Amino acid sequence: MSPAMLGLLLDAFLETLLMVAVSSTLAALVGVPLGVVLVATSPGHIREHPVLNRVLGAVVNAGRSTPFIILLVAIIPFTRLLVGTSIGTAAAIVPLTIAAIPFVARLAEAALREVDPGLIEAAQAMGASPVQIVTKVLVPEALPGLVAALTITVVNLISYSAMAGAVGGGGLGDLGIRYGYQRFLPEVMLAVVVVLIVLVQGVQSLGDRVAQRLNKRLVRSRPNA
Amino acid sequence: MIEIRDLTKTFHAEGGPVHVLKGVSLAIPKGEVFGVIGRSGAGKSTLVRCINLLERPTSGQVVVEGREITALGGRALREARHAIGMIFQHFNLLSSRTALDNVALPLELAGRSRADARAAAAPLLELVGLAGKHGRYPAELSGGEKQRVGIARALASEPSVLLCDEATSALDPETTQAILALLRDINRKLGLTIVLITHEMPVIKEICDRVAVLEHGEIVELGPVFDVFTAPTAEVTRRFVRDLVDRALPANLVARLAAPPPDGGNPVLRIVFRGPSANTPVVSEVVRRFGILLNILQAQVDYIQGEPYGNVIVEAIGRAEDVAASLDFIRSKDLKVEVLGHVAGDARTAA
C-alpha cells in the first residue's frame, strides 16, 4: 500500500474514532438516565408512573425498530438544522447518537433491573429518597452491568459508523466503500476490515476488564487474605 | 415504645382481596425484646414492615416514640425512618461497598460527608466484632459476618428501635446463637427496643422477653415467653412448642401403654417441672419418703429466659398407696403430674 493510502487510512481511522467517541458519550449521557427513568417508573418501583413509563417505552421501541440506514436519511433535515450540513463526520454523529440512545436506554434498564430489590428496600428503610436510591444504590450496584452495556454500544457504533460512511460521513467504512469497493482495491478493503477487527477487539477486552474490576460480587483472592 | 393499633392490611390479588392482617394491636415498651412467631403466610413479615411503613397498612395506626408513623409521608417519613433500624434475612448489603462503607451508607443518606460517615462507622464495626474487616466486600464475608455488618449498619443512625425480619433464618444454628447473643448485648448496652419476627421457636426462647403468636393475620396468643411456651393455649402455639412441652413418647413406650397388663401393672407418670419448685430435688425426695422406685423413661430440662422447664416421664414401681401418696406430695409442691397409663413391670424390676 502506498504511503498516501496509509495516510488516508489513518485519517479515516481518526474520523471513526471521533464519530464513535462523541456519539457514544452523548448516547450514554442521555441513554443511561433514560434507562434509570424506565426502571424507576415501572410498576412497583421507587417512582411508579405507568403513563410516563409506557410513553417512554414506546418511544424507545420506535427508535430501536427503525433500521439505522433509514434513520440516517430520514433525519437529514434535523441533522442539517443542528450542524448545518448533512455530509461529513460531524453530520454523521447526529444519527449515530440518536440511534444509540434507545439502545443504551434498554441495556441500562436491563442492568439496573438486575439490582436486588432487597437493596432498594433496605435503602428505603434507612430513609433514602428516590434520588439517593438511584445515586447511592441503583447506579453503583449496576455499574459492572452498565459498563458492559456501554461496551456493547461502542462496538455497535463502530459498525454503524461504517454505514454512516455510505452517506458521506467519512471514516473507515467510507474509505472501504470508495477505495476498496468502487476502485477495486482489495488490499484497502482488507486493511479497513483488519483495523476494524482490532478496534472492536480492543474495545471489548477493555470493557470486560473494567466491568470485572468493578464487580465486587465475586470473591477474588487477595494478597493478604 | 411502639404502639400498634388495630392494624389491617389487605392485598388485592387476582382471586380477590387477601386479608393479611386483621386488626392487630400491640404495645411494646421501651427496651423490650419482643418476638412475633408464626408460620409462613401468617402475616408476620407484613406486620414488621408496617412499623417502618415499607408496607403501608390498609387501616390502623403505628406510633413509635410518640410519633404517629402512619400519618407521615415523604420527607417526614424518611426522617422518622432514621430512628428505626432494620436487619433482613438476606442481609441486603451493597455488594459494591466494603463493610465499612456499608455501615457508613445510612449516615451518607442523612447528609453527612463520606469521610465523616466512615469515621462514625468504624466504632460500630468494632461493636459487632468486625474490627479487622473494614475493607472486605460482602462477597468476602461469611453469612454471620454479613449479618453483623447489617446490624452495625442498622445502628449507625442511632435508632431507638431495631426491626429484625427473619434475621437469623439464613444462618446455621451456631451462627444464629452468636447473632442472637449480639442482639441481646446491644439491647442491654443501648437500651434498644427490638422487634423480631421468626418462624423458629428457639430464637424466641433465646432472647425474647415477650412473644406474640400470629396466625392468619391475628394475634392468637401474647405474653411472657415462659408462660406462652410452657402453657400454650392456641393450637398453633402448641405445634411450635411441641418439642418443649408435648414431646412425643418413645415408640416402645407407646406400644407398652397400649397393652396394659390385666393385673394393673406399674403406673407411668408425667411430671412437669415449672416455677419455683423446678429447682428442688423432688424426685429424690419422693423415693426416700415413700419407698417407691422411679424408673426414668424420658427426661428433659429446658431453660427459657434462664428459668428451668422440665418434663420427666417415669414408671413408678411400688405399692399402690405409696404411689398415690407420692402423687399427692408432688402436687403439693405445685408441680403438674399426670398418669399416662400402666405398663407391665418387666422381669428385672419385678424381681
Low-confidence stretches of chain A: none
Task: Name the beta content range of chain B.
Answer: 25-35%
Q: How many β-strand runs of chain B? A: 14
Order of helices and strands of chain B: EEEHEEHEHHHEHEHEEHHHHEHEEHEH
CATH architecture of the largest domain in chain B: 3-Layer(aba) Sandwich
Number of strands of chain A: 0
Low-confidence stretches of chain B: 347-351
Q: Summary?
A:
The complex is a heterodimer of chains A (225) and B (351). Chain A is mostly helical.
What does this structure look like?
The complex is a heterodimer of chains A (225) and B (351). Chain A is an all-alpha fold and 225 residues long. Chain A is built from 9 helices and no strands. Chain A has one domain: Orthogonal Bundle (MetI-like fold). Chain B is of the alpha/beta class and 351 residues long. In chain B, 37% of the residues lie in helices and 30% in strands. Chain B is built from 14 helices and 14 strands. In chain B, the strands form 3 sheets. In chain B, strands 6-7-8-3-9-10 form a 6-stranded mixed beta sheet, with helices on both faces. Chain B has a 4-stranded antiparallel beta sheet with strand order 2-1-4-5, with helices on one face. Chain B is elongated. The N and C termini of chain B lie far apart (65 Å). Mean pLDDT of chain B is 90; it is low at 347-351. Chain A binds chain B through residues 116, 118-119, 121-129, 132, 136-137, 140-141, 143, 214, 216-219, 222, 225, and chain B through 52, 54, 75, 77-82, 84, 86, 88, 90, 92-97, 105-106, 108-110, 137-140, 153, 157, 163.
